[in-house]
Amino acid sequence: MTPQTASEKNRELCLLAPVIPVLVVDDANQAAGLARALVAGGLPVLEVTLRTPAALDVIREMATVTGGIVGAGTLLTPKDVENAKAAGALFGVSPGATDLILDACEANDLPLLPGVATATEAMRLLERGYTVQKFFPAEANGGAPALKAIGAPIPQVSFCPTGGVSLKNANDYLSLSNTLCVGGSWVAPKAMVQAGDWDAITALAAEASKLPR
Ligand code: 3PG
Fold first, then answer.
1. Helix axes 55-62, 31-40, angle to 10 degrees
2. Which residue of the set 47, 61, 106, 139 is catalytic?
């Protein structure tokens, strides 16, 4: 898959809802319930981070949930990319963007949302054809003012800022012309996931899905 095609696909996904939940799930038995709760709240695009031993099973389970579009986050190695693809991930997310990760995603037809933190990184990815990128870690890198400033000279790139984004500051990003959506873990708090409190998670998702863009 070319970087251009990956960017087109991810642009479409990013426009489906204002927030992509960033999920850290320890138990695959909770996966389907969690995905159903988020989809019911209006957040269909889900990023499952490869940060737990269960993550690939979680992706497999979530991929069966009607209406959900499940991707894999925290892609760090080509093996992660292959595993994510095999588990049914429809897109990939990485905190940064190395040649190995870009090559692997392009070779495995996994549309990658690659992470950048600086103008140089955004330019390098743009040179390769990636016009949709993740700004990470968003708040630590200067937040919405920094992303707005990057957008002035590089308006060709659109972003999904992630990292420190919450209901409180999401609007600061979503109101920027170079922001398609935001990513965040606040819609699936660990305690609620562990307790299987799906109604509470649906309520958080519903609140997030109504954020204006
Ligand atoms: C992460 O690194 O886990 C994601 O960027 C999500 O960050 P958050 O927990 O600050 O939303």
1. 50
2. 47
Residues 6+ apart with CB under 8 A from 118: none
Residue-wise pLDDT tens digits, 118-146: 999 999 999 999 999 999 999 999 999 99
Q: What is the CATH number of the domain that holds 187?
A: 3.20.20.70
Q: Quote the domain boundaries for residue 135.
A: 3-209
Ligand 1 lined by 163 (C-beta under 6 Å): yes
Q: What pTM does this model have?
A: 0.97
151 lines ligand 1 (CB under 6 A): no
Q: Number of structural domains, the chain?
A: 1
Ligand 1 center from residue 134 Cα (angstroms): 12
> Is any atom of ligand 1 closer than 6 Å to the C-beta of 39?
no
Q: Report residue 27 as tokens.
A: 């138990």
